[in-house]
């Protein structure tokens, strides 16, 4: 009955009838009332749902232990005939009671596991620093050497994790954080197998020449790695059980399927709305954000944002890089990157605030369980939501620019662009809808279409429906269908993102799901902090950071998924329709539709 109840095969209301039927089948007895049947035990009332199997296992233990005692004490039965129990007691004390939790489970196992996982975290930190250096400061000719340096480090960790793999069912001796650590340890396998330095260098070179086919052989290797990885091979055990539990939990909470979000809500809801705005043949003025903006001044201005957003610069740094990323060697060493465009200062501001959101997640992690998986990111979806929340809900808001526009005017005092611009004009310019080939330059409304395009290609590639060689033509066709744009060269199409070059083949859907998380989390934050807009008008982002630290960042990987965390936080299931409604409502107002 417990098993069927936990796995969702029966409902609570079914328990009495099932109980009575089984009592009749097993013992030939009729149950006259509930107190003599399903209400006779207290255990379920205190959530001890997995308790009863211990009785049978206990009986098995008892028989085998007593047999061992009789072998070790040949005259045991003679002692019992005389009413002498001390010899049995002494044997049991030595061989059972004094052993405590020394074997198989308990504190020693937790300590050993924690030590292993902390070592893993430190090695990951080293790997992360190597990757940061590779993408930010490393000389071009050091590519092969870096690959040779990275592989042994990650290989050593993989070997140690394999050697000390844990598969026991420890649900009765570990607390939720410790259980999560065991579940999450298995996820290390996939990330290790995907680690590679050479393909990212190949991507950089192919991008310079705008030739996808120079990169294709390396991408084919990454796809083979993914198909061969443990992620696709693990059957049974904790990992498989965690997937089953998560699937049941999502279904019980009414959480959506990915395809339902990407194809159902966005394609059907957003494509017609984007076309409707285009048909209006009207655009908000944004010429004042164009022009030559000194990179040094942009850098100075952008470097103010992490501090304003309460990022601890003594425990991190901000650098410039071709592709945005956040390196998290440790919460005391969090490195974020940004990039600038001479002709558009918006890119530098947006990039910096976006990656600061990632960095704040890292600095806000659970310190009590630091360096164990449960303190680390629950999912890249949730991680992405924290950057998108800052970029979309904060940066694109009118309260934020009420405070920031005077600072911007002062920073670029030699520009005539901003002198007569109002907060309302600036807000409308920053929220202008204009399809673009580049994902990172996309506006909030058209951005999901960039993700759908990538999601569909990734899914087809991983599932073997297309080959790597098919990607450019398929990419270009979808860009034309979804946004009406022609891709003139690979650099502006399928070569614009670094993710595939390092084996991250399931990243892009996180951007859209992250947007859904961001909207629902920020909506909840505004409900719990009614004067949040007043804080933003003053440039005060501390209250938002503290709320997110408590409700999101410090939760780490305690929950089975980000969907479940959002449900517990907001009391509402994750909803693609909620996000689409947010977008349509916002841009209907902005464009007076």
Automatic annotation (TrEMBL):
Pfam (any one): Peptidase_M32
Entry's Gene Ontology BP terms: proteolysis
InterPro entries (alphabetical): Peptidase_M32_Taq
Coiled-coil region: none
A molecular-function term among this protein's GO annotations: metallocarboxypeptidase activity
Protein name, as recorded: Carboxypeptidase
Organism: Linnemannia schmuckeri
